[in-house]
Recover the amino acids of this structure.
């Protein structure tokens, strides 16, 4: 166990993730002030309390021992659940007593202040309470959006390729009929320069596009080839899993895998997608496997051992892979040869659009994860719940990788944006103890015309919290035994 890595993970969690949790609570605090709810305490960190920093507007601002975010405690709440009328009355009396003492002191100093009228959260209307509970989520989404915009303005990595090569041409496809051949290099499309296969996707647009005009290099020749899309979508061939990068010193590099190699099989399992290879490797960590590959039409085999704890930014075998599919309209398989990455800052307007797009896409991805698991398009491993230990480990990997590769703060901000949005969406889950569970109770109140007794609702939230803590303990153990590795 590397103590330096553990220390980095803890520091990264406190510095990167802690503020995101605090921002969530700031959203609740601002919303409480807006709807007139009395906030007894705004805590930085989690109890036990270390010191009361100051009192402002009747709210005690405190510094607590555990530096993992913060909390807001409005009148009538105990940070987790509503409390009974007796406790509310007691807290109200204590709050008003402090107000009276402060007013008396202010009168003596000639700085008289108007006493703050108390209002518990349960005294707020249903829609006000929903606003209070959803405000934290809103702050997380806004924060994620702002961070995505900053990342876009600081520079977006863009893949640049020396050449886009035709890897294969489907039989009887429009591309074959037009004369395209495997090995051709596409340098232009419809009068535009082409640097990557993504450029071609962007220029083609929708699949009912008109004829495309390609500029192709074949050896020393430069050809102009026009290709019409198929009238009926072609049947897409099975994906080819291609090695797009090999990390120095990795198992893949040791056995001589190279850019452009096609992974055909691992042991006796055929490989037709990235997910096939990733799942097999993760199920055989620290076990020797036989990998069958194709290079320039020749088939070979190598033996390697997927690593359980690879360096940050690498997978078990240290090879980046990509699944290539036959284009259903033109019958092409393309690959980016000799790829390099450059960082391109975007103008403010484009950064705003990209920030919004990234935020919306991430929200959709998180929400659709359960459906995609059922459909089989997302592995359980990739969508597994992560504890604070797992998040700390990922944060440490991101910080270390950014430092080792001299990437500056952009990858860290990108990671923080993703976590901020994830925190917000997770809090919306209709689970007792979370904001979504609280909102669910208010919706039930609106439907039945009266609220549930605070004691009963509080008991439900307490039970929900205990179950969540139990699940979190399981997730913590899983993250320790089977640590996440960022790819």
């Amino acid at each position: 166990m590397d103590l330096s890595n553990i220390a980095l993970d803890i520091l990264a969690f406190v510095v990167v993730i802690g503020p995101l949790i605090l921002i969530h609570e700031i959203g609740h605090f601002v919303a409480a002030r807006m709807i007139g709810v009395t906030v007894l305490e705004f805590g930085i960190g989690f109890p036990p309390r270390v010191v009361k920093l100051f009192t402002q507007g009747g709210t005690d601002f405190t510094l607590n021992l555990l530096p993992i975010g913060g909390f807001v405690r409005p009148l009538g709440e105990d940070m987790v659940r509503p409390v009974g009328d007796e406790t509310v009355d007691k807290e109200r009396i204590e709050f008003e007593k402090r107000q009276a003492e402060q007013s008396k002191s202010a009168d003596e100093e000639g700085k008289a202040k108007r006493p703050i009228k108390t209002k518990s959260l349960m005294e707020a209307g249903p829609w006000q309470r929903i606003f209070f509970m959803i405000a934290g989520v809103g702050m997380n989404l806004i924060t994620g959006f702002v961070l995505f915009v900053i990342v876009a303005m600081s520079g977006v990595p863009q893949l640049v390729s020396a050449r886009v090569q035709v890897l294969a041409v489907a039989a009887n496809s429009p591309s074959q009929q037009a004369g395209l051949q495997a090995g051709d290099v596409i340098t232009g499309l419809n009068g535009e320069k082409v640097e990557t296969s993504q450029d071609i996707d962007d220029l083609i647009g929708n699949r009912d596009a008109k004829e495309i005009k390609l500029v192709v290099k074949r050896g020393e020749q430069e050809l102009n080839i026009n290709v019409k899309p198929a009238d009926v979508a072609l049947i897409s061939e099975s994906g080819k899993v291609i090695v797009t990068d090999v990390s120095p010193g990795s198992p893949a590099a040791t056995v001589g895998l190279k850019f452009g190699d096609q992974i055909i099989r691992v042991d006796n399992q055929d490989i037709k997608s990235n997910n096939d290879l990733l799942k097999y490797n993760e199920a055989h960590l620290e076990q020797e496997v036989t990998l069958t590959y194709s290079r320039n039409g020749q088939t070979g085999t190598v033996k390697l051992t997927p690593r359980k704890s690879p360096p940050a930014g690498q997978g078990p075998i240290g090879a980046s892979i990509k699944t290539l599919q036959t284009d259903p309209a033109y019958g092409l398989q393309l690959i980016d040869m000799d790829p390099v990455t450059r960082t391109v800052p975007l103008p403010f307007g484009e950064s705003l659009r990209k920030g919004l797009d990234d935020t919306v896409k991430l929200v959709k991805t998180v929400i659709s994860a359960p459906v995609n698991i059922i459909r089989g398009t997302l592995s359980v491993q990739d969508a597994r719940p992560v504890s604070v230990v797992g998040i700390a480990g990922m944060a440490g990997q991101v910080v270390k990788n950014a430092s080792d590769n001299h990437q500056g703060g952009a990858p860290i901000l990108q990671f923080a944006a993703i976590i901020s949005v994830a925190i917000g969406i997770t809090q919306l889950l209709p689970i007792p103890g979370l904001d979504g569970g609280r909102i669910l109770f208010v919706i039930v109140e609106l439907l039945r015309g009266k609220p549930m007794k605070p004691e009963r609702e509080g008991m439900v939230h307490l039970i929900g919290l205990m179950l969540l803590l139990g699940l979190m303990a399981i997730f913590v153990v899983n993250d320790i035994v089977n640590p996440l590795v960022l790819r």
